[in-house]
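Take a sample.
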Amino acid sequence: MVMTRTGQAVSRLACFRSVAVALAAAVFFTGGGLLAATPAAAATLDELAGSPAAADLDVMTFNLRYASSSRPNSWAQRRPAMRELLTAEQPDLIGTQEGLAGQLANIKQDLGSRYELIGVGREGGTRGEYMAIFYDNTRLQPLEQHHFWLSDTPEVVGSNTWGGGSIRMVTWVRFRDVVTGGQLYAVNTHLDNASALARERAAQLIRARLAALAPGLPIVLTGDFNSGPWAGSPVYDVLVRQAGLVDTWTAAAATGPAYGTYHNYQPLVAGGARIDWILATRGVTVSAAAINTYGSGSGQFPSDHLPVQARLRLPVATTSEVTLVNRATGKCLDVYASSLVDGADAGLWTCNGGANQRWRIDEAAGGNYRLINLASSKALDVNGCGTADGTKIQQWSWLNNACQRWSLIDTEDGWMRLENVNSGKVADVADCGTTDGTTVRLWAWLNNYCQQWQARS
């Protein structure tokens, strides 16, 4: 027996099945996805990199193959193999693709109480495939989450405007790492298999959305990209060369053998297309990466894809999250009714601790700041980039312009004014109102209590 980092005993055979090395011969299959001979066992992440240090984060990306009753390789047939693989590996973070609601519930049950999942069906609610993120709740605590669709209208549930064969989406979560105290973003996606244009446009949108996340926090991007990491791949070019993400496979100090990660229950292809990736922001240290060629004792693969794994050491970084309390009223800066839409009003409301009253303060260019609402992940914004007194202050998707940047200028006794970089005017309570729902607007600095705010944790 060997012990996992949590102290759980796992058979050495189960551990060694993962990330198998091909010793020379090809892997042979009978029909229907069953192995005639399982791959020869060799390097696990532990064998490649040694036992994990406390700060190491084990990450997996895994296209689960959606649940189906069609035999062979029905979900009922594959579930035991999936359970055995995941409980042997116990990643801290798993980005999954194609899982259906009931299937994901099965996996959560099989993983046990240490694991939670975050996700939504791509058709809305529980309908359709998820880009679900599983996480070890003893290691990671979710702080913020969001979903968007890979289309010209990313906030429209189920939208598909680029000629893709299927609806595609992204799920992301901002986590606190309870071991290091730092924070990170886990971002998970599945790009279209039918349209090269849809894949390229999706990569461009993901790049833009990553740029809108809290600067300085590390990002781990998992997914089935339906594209190999070869020269000339538009998806790889956008995400690695342009966005500056690191391919953890090529950055790893040690790797297991390379296989094509989509096998479709056919013989594995040594050196085949690696279409499932784990990418991360620069500054990450990758001690090991591996493609898991697991096959259960019965010879059943858990999916038509091979999971990819990496052991990461991320830079430690945090953010500041506050409520903004108005000095005149003692009420909080609020997005009405926790709205998620662009253009929703910012206003006053009795402080209640809701996420729609919590703001993440991110340092932006020039020593200024952006204020991101935790309920919507949208930025505090001036309507139409207006400069006139009385212009509405609202929330809007991050556009990286001066209308969404603010200077936090001390006034007296721990209070400050929120001065818009574009206009030089400040966030003001309309007519010094005190009732819930009073709007907050742009106004010239008058040095009164209605224009002063305090950040409280």
Observations:
- The chain has seven helices and 26 strands.
- Residues 2-313 form a domain with the Deoxyribonuclease I; Chain A fold (CATH 3.60.10.10).
- The CA atoms of residues 209 and 398 lie 9 Å apart.
- The helical segments are 12-17, 45-49, 75-89, 101-111, 196-211, 234-242, 248-251.
